[in-house]
Specification:
InterPro entries (chain A): FAD-dep_OxRdtase (IPR006076), FAD/NAD-bd_sf (IPR036188), Rhodanese-like_dom (IPR001763), SoxB (IPR006278)
Structural class of chain A: alpha/beta
Oligomer: heterodimer
Low-confidence stretches of chain B: none
Protein name (chain B): Sarcosine oxidase subunit delta
Distance between the termini of chain B: 23 Å
Largest sheet of chain B: 4 strands, antiparallel
CATH superfamily of the largest domain in chain A: FAD/NAD(P)-binding domain
Largest sheet of chain A: 8 strands, mixed
Radius of gyration of chain B: 14 Å
Keywords (chain A): Cytoplasm, FAD, Flavoprotein, FMN, Nucleotide-binding, Oxidoreductase
CATH class of chain B: Alpha Beta
InterPro entries (chain B): SoxD, SoxD_sf
Number of domains of chain B: 1
Order of helices and strands of chain B: EEEHEEE
CATH topology of the largest domain in chain A: FAD/NAD(P)-binding domain
Shape of chain A: globular
CATH architecture of chain B: 2-Layer Sandwich
Number of strands of chain B: 6
Distance between the termini of chain A: 42 Å
Strand order of the largest sheet of chain B: 3-4-5-6
CATH architecture of the largest domain in chain A: 3-Layer(bba) Sandwich
CATH superfamily of chain B: Folate-binding superfamily
Number of helices of chain A: 9
GO molecular function (chain B): sarcosine oxidase activity
Order of helices and strands of chain A: EHEEHEHEHEEHEEEEHEEEEHEEEHH
Strand content of chain B: 35-45%
CATH class of the largest domain in chain A: Alpha Beta
Low-confidence stretches of chain A: 395-400
């Protein structure tokens, strides 16, 4: 038996590129892919400090949905979901994209009103959404404790049947392979340490592997965006927090949908391999430490066991944390920056994975044309000065 | 879990506290431009390193304190 071929080259950096993307996670790889596919821009490097897709792409809970409240969010996430629906075929790689349905539970009257409102808003925006009463929830997901005496009574749920999960590694590998095939250089172990800016235009990046000249530079660095932007003299409305997740030991199939509960900060699905994948809320304090507190996991597990008593003797296999960049309105920041030629795609906070293809699509278009893609326009950095926020905090989901 | 030294109650577990973000943010004086106001409302430092921050001892003396914490190692020290 021979080792399979490598999916992409491992090139040394060239002295100059038309576009340098900083960050080789899902969004950076998708951006490189769509720059090549949609705009014919292939003289591109993706610079990754560590290894490809080893940051949040390897740490998220892979939930995909588009049932956001506000028009601007619904539009960009639905665009992304539509891309997901064709992505396995397009990339010729089984992404294990499984539209198994996403439930968002309501535990109190406020949740019920918010959920019903969101279902109506989703439908007006062409996003599939249904409201389930408690009996229907029980039918759709029999292992949820829907008894009236539950600590967190289930008073209903929204259901997006087209939502689901995908295999995060496959997504990264497939995008990397196709970007590489277009001629994009994916350069790992290459940390950006500074920017060369001449007359307010970025002309090169300094890296741990030397200077690389760039026509345009595009940040796609998630939790480390603030650190990079500071090197270009830009302050951003972002705060970096650990976001924890965990997996259980492998189980027989027991849960065939995604269940989310914003009120108690629980989201659960069962991966194809069999482990339960659960996410918590962010740890409260700023951190770049890629680890979280046990008490956050403990609170989240306590709530999960109230909802799923059947999991009471399941053992946790491992926990981990990724660093997420949270913006004041819990919506992403996409577009130009005060430095010409320097672009930003950040602030996806706890919900960036689902946006991977959509984000790459609109970011590539924004970079290629030097102006915001129509779907990205509302997400420009200026909104924090104009006050036109897209406040998804309480609306669609605290836990993205 | 962090052990935070409350000036009133002594060293206490982190989950008795509420996080308050960057310390030393004061209300802007006089007339402000939109950009200055946005800065006051939305812009906070986000350093990879030492960070001066506020904590509220919610389940104790219910007073605010300022600590310096390293955002990678999570080491805590008294602010200078």
């Amino acid at each position: 038996m021979t080792h399979p071929d490598f999916l992409w080259r491992n090139p040394d950096p060239r002295p100059a590129y038309d576009v340098v993307i900083v960050g080789g996670g899902g969004h950076g790889l998708a951006t490189a892919y769509y720059l090549a596919r949609n705009h014919g821009i292939t003289n591109v490097a993706v610079l990754e400090r560590g290894w490809l897709a080893g940051g949040n792409m390897a740490r998220n809970t892979t939930i995909i949905r588009s049932n956001y409240l506000w028009d601007e969010s619904a539009a960009i996430y639905e665009h992304s979901l539509k891309l997901w629906e064709g992505l396995s075929a397009e990339l010729d790689y089984d992404l294990q994209f499984s539209q198994r349905g996403v439930l968002n539970l309501a535990h109190n009257l406020g949740d019920v009103r918010e959920g019903r409102r969101r279902v109506n808003a989703n439908r007006l925006n062409g996003v599939d959404a249904e409201w389930l009463d408690p009996d229907e929830v029980k039918k759709f997901c029999p292992i949820i404790n829907t008894s009236g005496r539950a600590r967190y009574p289930v008073m209903g749920a929204t259901l997006q049947r087209r939502g689901g999960i995908a295999k995060h590694d496959h997504v990264a590998w497939a995008l990397a392979r196709q970007a590489d095939a277009y001629g994009v250089d994916l350069i790992q172990g290459c940390e950006v340490t500074g920017f060369e800016i001449l007359k307010n235009r970025v002309i090169a990046v300094q890296t741990s592997r030397g200077r690389i000249a760039a026509g345009k530079v595009a940040l796609a660095a998630a939790g480390h965006t603030s650190v990079l932007a500071a090197q270009a003299g830009i302050r951003l409305p972002l705060q970096s927090h650990p976001l924890q997740a965990l997996v259980s030991e492998l189980l027989e199939p027991v849960l065939d949908c995604v269940v989310m509960s914003n009120a108690v900060h629980v989201y659960v699905s069962q991966a194809h391999k069999g482990e339960l994948v659960m996410g918590a809320g962010i740890d409260a304090y700023n951190s770049y430490g890629q680890r979280g507190n046990v008490h956050v996991i403990e609170a989240q597990m306590a709530a999960a066991l109230e909802l799923f008593p059947i999991f009471s003797r399941v053992r946790v296999l491992r926990t981990w944390a990724g660093i997420v960049d949270v913006s004041p309105d819990a919506s992403p920041i996409i577009g130009r920056t005060p430095v010409d030629g320097l672009y930003i795609n950040a602030g996806w906070g706890t919900g960036g994975f689902k946006a991977t293809p959509g984000s790459g699509w609109v970011y590539a278009d924004t970079i290629a044309h030097g102006r915001s893609h129509p779907l990205a326009e509302p997400f420009a950095l200026e909104r924090f000065t104009t006050g036109a926020l897209i406040d998804e905090h309480g609306a669609a989901a605290v836990a993205h | 879990m962090l052990l935070l030294d409350c000036p009133h109650c002594g060293p206490r577990d982190e989950n008795e506290f509420h996080y308050g973000g960057q310390a030393g943010i004061s209300y802007p004086e006089g007339e402000t431009t939109d950009a200055e106001w946005a800065g006051y409302v939305f812009l906070r430092d986000n350093p990879k390193g030492w960070f001066r921050e506020r904590w509220f001892h919610a389940h104790g003396c219910r007073t605010w304190l300022t600590v310096e914490r390293h955002t990678v190692t999570h080491e805590v020290r008294k602010p200078e």
